[in-house]
């Protein structure tokens, strides 16, 4: 199966003006300081060194990509402008632009003091979008002619582009493997008659049992959702939020099931994508925990905005937060800004759930074989320089905006059989991208490695191909390709040659570990050229959990279909991932040191279920013999909010338990998955974690809420003091009111105790 990104652009490449207006934030409130919480989970020791630059601060300036954009004269919001900046023409990783044609850029400062001091000057030059709290940065809307002036402000370290993010929804079966991995099983649709759309997740997660036995609905808990948008889809989606409330799919005034607390706050004024996937995620939570209060925030266009929005949800009372998004500049080989924020709030007693993403495609290993295995990534312990196909040097010049770049290329071949490229068969959408990162620290990149795609014979492809790096500080690059311009074609099956080229005369090139994740849309990697045992010993194929979902602070969810929950979705991201460096230092921009020992990260932690019924998202299925007609939400994006909702039920059942205890209960009691129809090549724990989350078992592992303290019986009376109500009008009289007050304060008290216990580093 595959995965779909949500394109924020109209056919012209510019964000819709109506939506673009939402991007413009006028009022900016400055935060007096940085919220810091000690992490419960320390990193291994790092090798100490005396940095050549004792300040760790790089010279300020406009990133090379934005400088090329400014020099090009291209109109922001067009594919030409994104390409001029060295970015994909569209989709995830492309340039974020508002409806007025202004580019979203981030000014990074050497300190919070410098950041705050610069605010008046920034406001006099450009419009401020957000002021960073998690890092000394300011996001602004700027036209290219103002880039240099903004970067010249005192204390600026760099000016970097804001980018569109990647979301973990999924749409279709790959044509070659649909039969081999085919879905089976009967749909299980349950739900109260007050809902127009039934809940099909209750049975596979055991939610129907705990709702019936304990009356759990999440009341007293707050779940925050982070995704692209909530109610900005307009006429591109089938319903709006108000209609969903009336249908019983979301809470709010007019909800026919009686859940009238509206979703809020809804923080989408910095949205850059507009599919309303976040509203679909909120529907998933509401279907399982309808009594829980819901909130929403976008991920923003930068890692700082993402981290700050997480903190905003916490500040507004979130007990559980769930996201389905990664940003392409988040590092794979060290803890980034977003992951650090999640570690901070975990230490404060908040449970954070993330989707494992959908890059774990399943394909064939070896030419002409039927050996099925995970094919979502390729990774080598070192870059092995070799020869290149003709023309790669010129392609590198285009990618980097340089001339005369000297290149060599990765030798992909088995020992003794050098290969200039890696033959791959991909099933993709019309436009797709592949991502590359290499093991150098953020702000310490010395090597530039860029992927390129050629045809099966190693010749240039017939249609548009873009390659480049996202910025000047992150060891990350991409290749994007338009496989067809026919708007009626949804998927394309093609044979390609992947090339990794290294710039020999840029920076100080090394031979670091390098990894490619095939973030293709809709399909996956259908075939790789070498059979098991033919790859070099230091090559790893398959693991595709990356960015903050790979971090230990995150409860990461894979996916199995709701109508066949014993079969893993073949796109569900698998582990492991590995950290080789200490955390990114966003405060000083000093490169992190290498860890004395690599930190292997087993992921995912567990799985939820996808293909969740919604009122509008993502695809309408009809005529199926497996599932009834309706909108179904596939992907780990749909599974993760179900896990978050089960966590809310567990917290309601056991309000005295800490978030860590609830997390442990969810993981330790998950239902193990049966044997799957192919060999993943990694441990089961790196495929489905501990198994499918199961609410009855998780709740059984937790202590129930303590019984309320007895309240002395009130003297007999026919009237309640101060109200004039008869005792018959309020059962139990004063005693009943006292019990109500006691019960009403219980969850608040236990929540405070849970947060306090987490802050003390205790588990009770």
From TrEMBL:
- The residues that cross the membrane are none
Q: Which domain of life is it from?
A: Bacteria
A molecular-function term among this protein's GO annotations: serine-type endopeptidase activity
The record ties this protein, via InterPro entries, to:
Peptidase_S8/S53_dom, Peptidase_S8/S53_dom_sf, Peptidase_S8_Ser-AS, Peptidase_S8_subtilisin-like
Pfam families in the record: Peptidase_S8 (PF00082)
Concerning SUPFAM superfamilies, the annotation shows: Subtilisin-like (SSF52743)
Q: Which UniProt keywords apply?
A: Hydrolase, Protease, Serine protease
- Cite a single GO BP annotation: proteolysis
The cellular component terms of Gene Ontology attached to this UniProt record, alphabetical and capped at eight, are: extracellular space
Q: Which family does it belong to?
A: Belongs to the peptidase S8 family.
Q: What is the name listed in the Swiss-Prot or TrEMBL entry for this protein?
A: Uncharacterized protein
């Amino acid at each position: 199966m595959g995965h779909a990104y949500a394109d924020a652009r109209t056919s012209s490449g510019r964000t819709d003006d109506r939506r673009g207006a939402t991007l413009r934030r006028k009022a900016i409130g400055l935060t007096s300081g940085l919220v810091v919480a000690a992490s419960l989970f320390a990193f291994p020791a790092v090798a100490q060194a005396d940095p050549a630059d004792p300040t760790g601060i790089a010279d300020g300036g406009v990133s090379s990509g934005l400088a090329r954009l400014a020099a090009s004269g291209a109109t922001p919001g067009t594919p030409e402008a994104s390409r001029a900046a060295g970015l994909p023409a569209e989709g995830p990783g492309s340039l974020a632009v508002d409806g007025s044609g202004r580019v979203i850029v981030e000014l990074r400062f050497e300190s919070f003091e410098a950041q705050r001091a610069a605010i008046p000057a920034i406001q006099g030059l450009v419009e401020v979008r957000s002021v960073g709290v998690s890092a000394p940065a300011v996001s602004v809307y700027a036209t290219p002619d103002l880039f240099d002036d903004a970067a010249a402000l005192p204390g600026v370290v760099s000016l970097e582009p804001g980018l569109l993010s990647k979301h973990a929804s999924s749409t279709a079966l790959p044509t070659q493997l649909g039969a081999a991995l085919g879905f089976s099983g009967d749909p299980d649709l349950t739900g109260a008659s007050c809902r127009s759309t039934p809940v099909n997740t209750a049975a596979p997660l055991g939610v129907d049992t705990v709702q019936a036995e304990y009356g759990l609905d999440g009341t007293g808990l707050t779940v925050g959702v982070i995704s692209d948008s909530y109610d900005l889809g307009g006429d591109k989606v089938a319903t709006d939020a108000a209609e969903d409330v009336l249908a019983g799919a979301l809470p709010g005034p007019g909800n026919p099931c009686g859940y009238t607390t509206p979703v809020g706050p809804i923080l989408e004024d910095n949205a850059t994508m507009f599919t309303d996937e976040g509203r679909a995620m909120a529907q998933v939570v509401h279907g399982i925990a309808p009594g829980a209060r819901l909130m929403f925030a976008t991920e923003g266009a930068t890692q700082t905005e993402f981290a700050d929005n997480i903190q905003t949800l916490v500040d507004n009372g979130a007990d559980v937060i769930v996201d389905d998004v990664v940003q392409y500049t988040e590092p794979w080989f060290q803890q980034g800004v977003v992951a650090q924020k999640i570690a901070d709030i975990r230490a404060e007693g908040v449970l954070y759930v993330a989707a494992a993403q959908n890059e774990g495609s399943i394909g064939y290993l070896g030419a002409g074989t039927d050996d099925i295995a995970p094919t979502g990534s390729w990774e080598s312990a070192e870059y092995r320089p070799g020869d290149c196909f003709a023309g790669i040097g010129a392609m590198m010049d285009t990618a980097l905006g340089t001339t005369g770049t000297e290149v060599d290329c990765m030798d992909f071949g088995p020992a003794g059989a050098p290969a200039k490229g890696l033959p791959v068969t991909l099933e993709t959408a019309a436009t797709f991208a592949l991502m590359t990162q290499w093991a150098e620290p953020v702000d310490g990149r010395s090597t530039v490695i860029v992927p390129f795609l050629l045809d099966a014979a190693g010749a240039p492809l017939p249609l548009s191909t873009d390659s480049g790096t996202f910025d000047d500080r992150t060891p990350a690059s991409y290749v994007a390709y338009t496989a067809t311009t026919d708007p009626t074609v949804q998927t394309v099956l093609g044979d390609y040659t992947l090339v990794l080229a290294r710039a020999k005369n840029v920076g100080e090139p090394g031979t670091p570990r390098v990894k490619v994740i095939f973030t293709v849309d809709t399909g996956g990697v259908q075939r790789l050229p070498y059979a098991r045992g033919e790859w070099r010993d230091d090559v790893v194929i398959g693991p595709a959990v990356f960015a903050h979902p790979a971090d230990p602070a995150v409860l990461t969810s894979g996916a199995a279909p709701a109508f066949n929950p014993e079969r893993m979705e073949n796109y569900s991201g698998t582990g492991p991932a590995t950290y080789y460096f200490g955390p990114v230092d966003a405060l000083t921009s000093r490169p992190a040191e290498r860890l004395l020992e690599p930190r292997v990260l087993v992921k995912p932690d567990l799985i939820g279920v996808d293909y969740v019924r919604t009122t509008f998202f993502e695809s309408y299925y009809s005529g199926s013999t497996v599932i009834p007609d309706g909108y179904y939400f596939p992907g780990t994006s749909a599974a993760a909010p179900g896990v978050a909702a089960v966590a809310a039920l567990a917290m309601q059942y056991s309000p005295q338990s800490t978030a860590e205890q609830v997390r442990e209960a969810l993981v330790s009691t998950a239902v193990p998955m049966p044997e799957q129809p192919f060999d993943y090549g990694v441990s089961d724990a790196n495929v489905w974690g501990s198994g499918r989350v199961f609410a009855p078992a998780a709740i059984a592992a937790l202590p129930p809420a303590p019984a309320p303290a007895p309240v002395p019986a009130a003297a007999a009376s026919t009237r309640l003091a101060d109200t004039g109500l008869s005792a018959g009008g309020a059962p139990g009289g004063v005693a009943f009111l006292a019990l109500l007050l006691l019960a009403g304060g219980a969850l608040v008290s236990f929540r405070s105790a849970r947060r306090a216990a987490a802050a003390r580093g205790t588990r009770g």
